[in-house]
Amino acid sequence: MNQDAKKFAASFYGRVNAPVVERCRLNFCTDLEKSVLMSNFERRGWHQVGPDDEWNFYWASTQTCRNLFSVESGYRMNDNQIINHFPNHYELSRKDLLVKNIKRYRKELEREGNPLAEKAEVVLHGGQLGTRYVHLDFIPITFVLPADYNMFVEEYRKSPQSTWIMKPCGKSQGTGIFLINKLSKLKKWSREAKAPFHPQLSKESYVISRYIDNPLLIGGKKFDLRLYVLVTSFRPLKAYLFQLGFCRFCTVKYDTSVTELDNMYVHLTNVSVQKHGGDYNSIHGGKMSVQNLKLYLEGTREKSVTDKLFAAMQWLIVHSLKAVSSVMANDRHCFECYGYDIIIDNQLKPWLVEVNASPSLTSTTVNDRILKFKLIDNILSVVLPPDGVPDVRWNKQPNPEVLGNFDLLIDEELLEKDEPSSFIGKSNKNIKNRAT
């Protein structure tokens, strides 16, 4: 086979002919033997070892990370070891804690008299007047059940028949999610639940959020965005946004009728749900790149409006991270790649749905594999010092040329020095003006 044929075959089957990076002898350990991970580690000439051996780099599951940092384990990392989760990553990724931390963050700014916590009077769904945050209104109205049940009922009665979405706090991939539009349905579920819906008896918490019932549709179908955000430090906050995110589409056209309320192929964008639908397309996986979304919006809604939307999404990400920065265990051995799920409504307002601490590295399509290979490759380049050897004494300020497809979202250390490079990208000017 000649060289051109080899290149075509490699491209066709989704193999990435990335240049071999400079090799250095490192020991890595992983619980997740995904091809996009293993191929990146092997391409660097790293050597795989077990968790009880001497390792330098650990790509671990969240449970392994919790075990490793637990008091009972007694494990102490040395200066040349790094791991891919912060000890209490769940402060951002667990649905109830995310909401709690954002609400606390707002209240703190309010007490300080910070203009970011400004409120304004708005017309609610039911026609009544209410107050909302002007700048920090990026999560739907959410309550934790059973603890906030009475507050939820009070809010529900302001706009009866509104639709709400119920999600178990500790589950992912669409498990256990359902929609309600009547209090009676919630009470019926409570009676039928294995754990009675009672503050003293319930074993599992749920969040209930106002459903974004006016999502932006493309081709009549609902979608959300999966964006990857790399955090290398929480204090000072250092975060990067991966340019190659994607949209995940439902397989069935959006329908707000009561008869379709239980049809998860209409309402949930999770690939783990949609892949079981009869209309699922395994070639493109119901996905579209963020770049193509941007082009579509520029063509249908104008470039200035599109730029404003993308700036708002970056704003949302930065302040969700700021909301947890004070409570996160900021261990210098840690970094984390979070999967942000964002829904855009038909007014081009972004809403944060949830944050995942272990975004899927399974490749469902050829493009998926290429994207996730690049994601891991770029993460490794950003979190490792210039010599490629983990060192917690490093200041975690990578050279711009190694960022690859990452854009710097925020670096508070550079902000304190008032260096213009602390925010990168044309659309980030608004964030820099508002984020401090």
UniProtKB/TrEMBL annotation:
<keyword id="KW-0206">Cytoskeleton</keyword>
<dbReference type="GO" id="GO:0005524">
    <property type="term" value="F:ATP binding"/>
</dbReference>
<dbReference type="GO" id="GO:0070740">
    <property type="term" value="F:tubulin-glutamic acid ligase activity"/>
</dbReference>
<keyword id="KW-0969">Cilium</keyword>
<comment type="subunit">
    <text>Part of the neuronal tubulin polyglutamylase complex which contains TPGS1, TPGS2, TTLL1, LRRC49 and NICN1. Interacts with PCM1, CSTPP1 and LRRC49.</text>
</comment>
<keyword id="KW-0067">ATP-binding</keyword>
<keyword id="KW-0966">Cell projection</keyword>
<keyword id="KW-0547">Nucleotide-binding</keyword>
<dbReference type="GO" id="GO:0015631">
    <property type="term" value="F:tubulin binding"/>
</dbReference>
<keyword id="KW-0493">Microtubule</keyword>
<protein>
    <recommendedName>
        <fullName>Polyglutamylase complex subunit TTLL1</fullName>
    </recommendedName>
</protein>
<keyword id="KW-0963">Cytoplasm</keyword>
<comment type="similarity">
    <text>Belongs to the tubulin polyglutamylase family.</text>
</comment>
<dbReference type="GO" id="GO:0036064">
    <property type="term" value="C:ciliary basal body"/>
</dbReference>
<dbReference type="InterPro" id="IPR004344">
    <property type="entry name" value="TTL/TTLL_fam"/>
</dbReference>
<dbReference type="GO" id="GO:0000226">
    <property type="term" value="P:microtubule cytoskeleton organization"/>
</dbReference>
<dbReference type="GO" id="GO:0005874">
    <property type="term" value="C:microtubule"/>
</dbReference>
<keyword id="KW-0436">Ligase</keyword>
<dbReference type="Pfam" id="PF03133">
    <property type="entry name" value="TTL"/>
</dbReference>
